[in-house]
Amino acid sequence: APVNMALACDSVRYYSLMPYYGINVWSILKHDTLVMTVDAAKKVQARLLHHLSRRDPAGLRNPDWDEPQATHFTGHYQPDRTQSINCHTQSINCHTQSINCQLKVSIVIIKSLIFTKFKATLSMPDDSKSDEKPSGSDKETAKDSVFKRPSVIPKHRQDLLKWNGWGYQDSQFAVTNQRTLTFTGQRYQLSGSEMPALVEWMEKALGASIDQRSPAKFTRPENIPPPVQVNADFMSAIRQLGLSHSDAGPDRLFRGHGHTLEEMFTLREGMFPRLPDLVVWPTSHREVVELVNLANRCGVVLIPFGGGTSVTGALLCPPGERRMIVSLDTSQMNRILWLDERNLIGRFEAGIIGQDLEARLAELGYCIGHEPDSLEFSSLGGWVATRASGMKKNVYGNIEDLLVHVTFVTPTGVIEKSCAAPRVSVGPDVHHLIMGSEGSLGVVTEVTLKIRPLPQTRRYGSLVFADFASGVRCLRELALRRCAPASVRLMDNEQFQFGHALRPAASGWTTAFVDAVKRFYVTRVRGFKPDELAVATLLYEGTPEEVAQQEALVNSIAANHGGISGGEENGRRGYMLTFVIAYLRDLGLDYYCVGESFETSVPWDRVLDLCRNEECRSRGVTQPVLSTCRVTQTYDAGACVYFYFAYNYRGLPDPVHLYEEVENAARDEILANGGSLSHHHGVGKIRQRWYSRSVSEPAVAAVRAVKSRLDPNNVFACANLFEPAGGPDGQTEQKAKL
Amino acid sequence: APVNMALACDSVRYYSLMPYYGINVWSILKHDTLVMTVDAAKKVQARLLHHLSRRDPAGLRNPDWDEPQATHFTGHYQPDRTQSINCHTQSINCHTQSINCQLKVSIVIIKSLIFTKFKATLSMPDDSKSDEKPSGSDKETAKDSVFKRPSVIPKHRQDLLKWNGWGYQDSQFAVTNQRTLTFTGQRYQLSGSEMPALVEWMEKALGASIDQRSPAKFTRPENIPPPVQVNADFMSAIRQLGLSHSDAGPDRLFRGHGHTLEEMFTLREGMFPRLPDLVVWPTSHREVVELVNLANRCGVVLIPFGGGTSVTGALLCPPGERRMIVSLDTSQMNRILWLDERNLIGRFEAGIIGQDLEARLAELGYCIGHEPDSLEFSSLGGWVATRASGMKKNVYGNIEDLLVHVTFVTPTGVIEKSCAAPRVSVGPDVHHLIMGSEGSLGVVTEVTLKIRPLPQTRRYGSLVFADFASGVRCLRELALRRCAPASVRLMDNEQFQFGHALRPAASGWTTAFVDAVKRFYVTRVRGFKPDELAVATLLYEGTPEEVAQQEALVNSIAANHGGISGGEENGRRGYMLTFVIAYLRDLGLDYYCVGESFETSVPWDRVLDLCRNEECRSRGVTQPVLSTCRVTQTYDAGACVYFYFAYNYRGLPDPVHLYEEVENAARDEILANGGSLSHHHGVGKIRQRWYSRSVSEPAVAAVRAVKSRLDPNNVFACANLFEPAGGPDGQTEQKAKL
């Protein structure tokens, strides 16, 4: 005890005695000898090693200190690039190497209980519990705000986004006069353009008529029925914990559905049989843990809500659910927790939306590079739960390639690996239970992703082929030689013609002339037929040298298949249209037209036959069906193919049911032709009938067993992938036969 | 019924009537009109589509035909490269396109029950049930034998391999006279060389002495105790099924262990407490299914045995196991089932050994490119079960990148996806339950892997750095710029010096002179210190242009870190030593030296500190310990680091227990420094104590739930990853708390 130490030190003229957590370099340097007990040395070493290897340099889960406030955030983690050990404290930074060795020497040599007292200058590391931003220049402050900044999308999303359609309220296709369509707002490259050819295309391809509007008979959000189930215990606990929540109709409605055609129809024509009874907005991992434990105790259902862009019915509340349903909206958990420039990884809260993530990282010179078509609205947690894929996966990878670490909250506990190593063999990879769980096992709270420096150069391109088959063969060769650019997408003739219909009116005779010259070259000089040719759009990223090399190689390979370059502008346009395509469906729905996309992945040798057979199958529908496809991703062993179906339903009863039949027949055809159930959209509810057949019964049994173990009370009762055995609340789980 | 059809056809002058499965093109062409019932058309279409999309063109699981014999194999699947649908039958090949369209027309138009009888020339596809090889040239026959060929390793492996050490019997380090070591046999580049410097190195680095041999007191294989458990029902069923089996001591001993240091010690000094009671050699997926069902019914344990190269104790029989233990040896299931050149995939039986797989594919111009250090002996099934990694993963990927499809037999059923698409989102990926299962959930029978054309060029290289840290920084930059060659491995100074000790005696004064000149340049002109420098070995693969480009870029990046090229020869030597390193341990064990390797994956910024701290930790051992490390793989977010420990145990009691302490302390150090539990070796038994901490308790609970569901009777009772709850036979599974 201290008395003994004082006695022992009696003969020493000058000494300083301090507990282990007071150690600091300045004090050490003011003395001659550092003496520690074995225990003290072990504690200091443990603390150093903890900081060295922790996954969250902000100390969010450091056992030594009190739990930081929920609103704690950290500044930009800029590690010292010398060989010294990384710690936040600048002083330890300079000297830790010598201390580390000295510590180990101390363990062996000195075993006596003598302390040397240091002149106590307790300097705590910078990452303390306080919320104060570190002082500094404006640049510092701007940088810090990148880490914690509200989303572009407001908390009450219906203030900015459509409650009954896709995207922003201020952006939609609209009729200006009888014969021209325009795109409203100012957000997109297409905004403000007039598209004279689009109406003609709609009438020709779909038999629609600009004079025949199909009025929506929607229930206004203000008239939404009140919550059907309120769990009093849960409500009082929520209030006590101070969690932000709402039971207002518009908030509940917005979070009660995704964006399948059926859900859009329901919004326009009626009402969903069941909506969430409450919306809760947690702001940290810890609040989510409390929420999940609470729901488990009270018998309440949680449905995680990220971007709400699901196209599998995943967000629909099961109509037979008798317990209270709570929408767990992650949008207010959207911080960048830290960036690690040495390992090129970063940690993010799961509610961060794609456009916010990329915009904020870009300010710091980085990107994730994950660009799904839903980038503007979908969330990181949703990407993980659905096994998302992005346009530029050739460079950055799909979500399973980007994911380094994830924290996943289940009613049984928090799943997270103990380290962030790049690749491990530690039994079955639990990350792959989390990815694809589609909201049925738990909720993602924090994710560590790879980050990359922004590319130096970005260039678009396009290729024109005589027909779709030549284009497919070219893409297959790009995949074979592993030289595909960041993105390559091949559209068939219908989409090429549709792309033309979206062209703004020529701004002057020069543009019209140039276009005519191009058309002449393509169709007369090269002999491509306008009704058969296919176009691929390309995106290159890298250093200027890399991009030039890639482009030369791709063009030479295209030439092997009779393809010619269509120029950079057509490529750019193709990609700029990516984010407006989703708005087309709302236009169609106003004119008795339904349209939907669905996708698959398929081996290379099945691509062409699959596309042809899909088209044949669609002919079986009594309406003239617009059926078109595009190859959107290339892999070693196959490709991702997207299909678009659209038709005019005027005069037909029950158009949604008819559409369901068409889609199911289409999926049967895909599966019969060797295509998968889904490349990246997932199973949700709409594809459950094929789930067991796709992965085999014992595999379903295994996933069900995981569900029963991690969520025995079926808190996460969205009923995606499969209906839980034994009814919604899992009460008869044990008795039910799997 | 046929009577009605005959009556209906009465007015037709000539007709042929046949059931749907008799349809063939020649007959069709001999008539004018093809009329089918809707049902017939659907059946034919289903059959065509089945062949189009099946994963096994050999028709091994075609529901239309009888199950083929277990010894069925198929010839080289060389699909027609035209746009027509791929079928084996040559006639259908030419005309299917027209038939397909015509079929669809027929469905819509013709709905009457009229058959036209074809002149019956039933031509069955080539892939019939018969075992006859298709006739053809010698080249054809040679090609076909590539698909079905016995392994280089004989069925009774101890006839060729050591029963008490690593590798071939004819290959080992041996003392020629007092001061020189040689490597016997003729299999390796090193074979036959004399290594004068090696003895000196052993004495200096390890304090060993050539005069002090540690004799092995092993139990001769002939004196192995008989089986302890014989299940009579199981034995009679085995005989009835005609499954090859053996209860001979040598066969059982060989399959009762892997290659950890502890297991080698046990072989040399004693005997394992428990061995398999029987060895069974199934020859097909179907026999494995029968075996597993049988074991489940009879209450018998199955331990799958592939190459036997486990280094985690995975193959050790749990000593407390009271049921009969059967070693399921997959080595006789080693066929190449088919190759698909259009999709660049191939299907292989799980018992195929690495060296056989690559040698046979090379004859056809292809490779997998998966080259673990155990390539000569390890099996495809073992790679899948342990999440294996290979030297050239930068080009070909690790096992999770190579795997397209897998068939996995569990007591509950066979797990396999229904299609071989390259990437899917169909819930949690069940392939990742199979990969890493380490023999505890079931057994792999067949695997579809990506194949690649053999590289045009293969070139070795090496780089010399002033110190290990510079080398690590260079490797980090290669990873950052994503330009690492097929393989890059950085060894520290100790391994560089050890590599020198393995040099054969210089063949003449020229070689000695050249070496001296090189040394002079490296140490005097460039100023590298022989006791500090580090060397990286490199392997480039690709077209000559690609290789030249890669090499130029890598050399320029190395120069950024003060590295210079060490020449091609040193690189080649480095890689050639890969397969002989494993023989060193047996040499050491003869002279009181123990050595073991272990590996981890770790983020980039932890690599140097981890290596330094490992070294410090090892100093805590009272013996002088040879501690050395090498970086063997680079990733975006980190690296794989291999450690080698060796020391002289003469005079110490219980060297194995001491070694276990050293290894556990080392692993604690690795984990504290942010390294993973294992990059690719797996958990097995030796790392179970850290398993829960590594993946988190709920994750372990999830995996246990899968185990309970798929293998409720604990047939796969190897007890890897974790001890099953409720005892070995799972009897008290339900009652036991997880």
TrEMBL record, chains A, B:
Species of provenance: Macrostomum lignano
Pathway stated in the Swiss-Prot or TrEMBL entry: Glycerolipid metabolism; ether lipid biosynthesis
Residues making up the signal peptide according to the UniProt record: none
Enzyme Commission number: 2.5.1.26
Alphabetic keyword roster: FAD, Flavoprotein, Lipid biosynthesis, Lipid metabolism, Peroxisome, Ribonucleoprotein, Ribosomal protein, Transferase
InterPro entries: Alkyl-DHAP_Synthase, FAD-bd_oxidored_4_C, FAD-bd_PCMH, FAD-bd_PCMH-like_sf, FAD-bd_PCMH_sub1, FAD-bd_PCMH_sub2, FAD-linked_Oxase-like_C, Oxid_FAD_bind_N
Needed cofactors: FAD
Protein name, UniProt field: Alkylglycerone-phosphate synthase
Catalytic activities: a long chain fatty alcohol + a 1-acylglycerone 3-phosphate = a 1-O-alkylglycerone 3-phosphate + a long-chain fatty acid + H(+)
Gene3D superfamilies: 3.30.160.650, 3.30.300.330, 3.30.465.10, 3.30.70.3450, 3.40.1370.10, Uridine Diphospho-n-acetylenolpyruvylglucosamine Reductase, domain 2, Vanillyl-alcohol Oxidase, Chain A, domain 4
